[in-house]
Each structure stands twice: as C-alpha cells, then as structure tokens.
Amino acid sequence: MDVAVPFDAVDPKTRLEGLFEDAERRALAETVLEDVVAAIRASGREPTVYATAAVDLDAEVVVDERGLDPLVASLTDEPPIAIVMADLALATPEAFDRLFDTEGDVVAAPGLGGGTNALVVRNPAFEPDFHGTSISDHRQAVRDAGLDWTAVDSMRLAVDVDEPTDLVEVLLHGEGRTPDWLRDHGVSLAIDGGRARVVREE
Fold first, then answer.
1. Which of 25, 136, 139, 178 could form a disulfide with 89 if both were Cys (CB 3.0 to 4.6 A apart)?
2. Domain count, the chain
3. Cis omega (within 30 of 0) on the bond before 70?
4. Are strands 47-51 and 81-84 parallel, antiparallel or unpaired?
C-alpha cells in the first residue's frame, strides 16, 4: 500500500503567525514533516511526499503546484492508499502500524476539533474532502456509498500542529525532532491554574 503525505511547502502553518516569522513557520513545518516521514518509514513503509513546491527532504518528493486541494483529491484514484497529514508531530511507528493494519474500506484517524488526520482508502468509491469538520463528512460519505467505516482512536494521530495550543502536546509528549526545534527557538511551557500553555522568549 502506498503512503502519501501532502505538504504545503509555500505558506504553511499560518495560524502560528503570532509565534513565528514566515521562515520559522516553514522550518517548523519541514521539521514536523521529517518526523512524520521517519515514523512512517520506521513502520516499514516508504512514504511519498506530495508537495506544492520543492522541499529538501530525505524521501521521494513529487512536486504538484496546483495546491493541496486538487493534489489530495487525485491521490485516491488508485487505491489502496494511505493519506497522512504532514503535521502529526506526535506520530509513532506503532500508531501508524495500527492505522495501516486496520481492516476496512475506509479507515480514519480523527483529529482534535473535527478534522481528519489520516485515511486508509481501499475502495475507489470513496473520495476524500478534508475541509471543515471533515471527520463527520467522511463518515457520512462512507455510509452513503455503502462502504465499511473504521475509526482508529489514537492520541498520537489526533494531534496535528495547527494552533499554539497544539504545541503544548508536542512539548509534553513529542519524541522526534520537533520538540527540540521548539525548545531551540525559545518555546517552552508555562503553567496557569493547572493548565499548560506555550510561551516564547523574546
């Protein structure tokens, strides 16, 4: 089974603009991508990164300048295929093993807040659409097509790096290069009322 990792190499992580400059956001996104690729590879699969611009990475990279939406839509033309988001900084080989080995026409890793962080698609009747609360949309689309739907409950696949609050989980639980990158760039945890938040040294 092919494993595809779509990646916005042009303007990634816009919701982190309050913490990082443009070049830093790109560097962070590429660091998280490296962790995702390493975890997939350690699970025994060789991923292909589908990027919207050239990226220097120790993996096969296919550049598709059309943008993420048409890129992702074209990936399920020849199932079976796994689509893994490029910002799963907590992902481990064991978490990917669970995802890839789970049987079903469509297997999903739900993201926090209603998104879909990974899909395994084994039937061409299903077409993904990652906009909005996509996990419920995907579930309904699978049912409408009369296919099997399975959700993999995994904290390590549920957290994607989009918001500053997501960085709390990376600093607490991350095992790859990303938490080190954050600390090297002055990002740390502060505790307020028993809850953690991220702060950055000026």
1. 178
2. 1
3. no
4. unpaired
pLDDT tens digits, residue range 27-84?
999 999 999 999 999 999 999 999 999 999 999 999 998 888 888 888 888 899 999 9
Rg (CA), the chain: 17
SS3 category, 183: helix
How many alpha carbons lie under 13 Å from residue 144 in its C-beta half-sphere?
9
Cα gap 54→48, rounded to integer Å: 13
Do 26 and 173 form a contact (C-beta atoms < 8 A)?
no
* Spatial CA neighbour of 4 closest among 25, 29, 33: 33
CATH for 45: 3.90.550.10
pTM: 0.95
Range of the domain at 7: 2-158
